[in-house]
Amino acid sequence: MSNRSYPCEFCDTHLPQEKKRVTVSRQRKGKWFIFENVEALVCPNCGHRYFDAQVLEAMEQHIEHTPADARPIEGWAISLKG
Predict the structure, then answer these.
(1) How many other C-beta atoms are found inside a 10 Å radius of the C-beta of residue 17?
(2) Which of 13, 25, 27, 68 is deepest in the core (most CB within 10 A)?
(3) Where are the domains of the chain?
C-alpha cells in the first residue's frame, strides 16, 4: 500500500494517514458483502479510509464471484422511515 503525503480530502489535516486493517461493507442488488482485514490508510483526525486500486478491484471481484469459503451471516434490515 502506498503512503499518502498530502492532506486528507475530507478534513484537510496534514497528519499522516495510518496503515490499518479495517472491515468494509458493500451492498449490491439487495445483498450485503462484508470484507474483513482490508488494508487501508486511515486519517487519524476524521477516520476517512483510503484504499489502493488493487484492494478495490479485489472486493469487486469477490462480489461478482463469491468465494466458496465465504461465511454466510444472519442480520436484520430495519427501516426507521415513518
Answers:
(1) 22
(2) 13
(3) 18-64
Residue environment code for 26-54, b if the CB has 16+ CB neighbours within 10 A, otherwise e: eeeeeeeeeeeebebbbbeeeeeeebeee
- Cell numbers of 74, please? 444472519
CA distance 61 to 42: 23
pTM score, two decimals? 0.82
Other C-beta atoms lying within 10 Å of the C-beta of residue 80: 4
Q: How many CA atoms lie within 13 A of 64 on its CB side?
A: 6
SS3 state of residue 74: coil
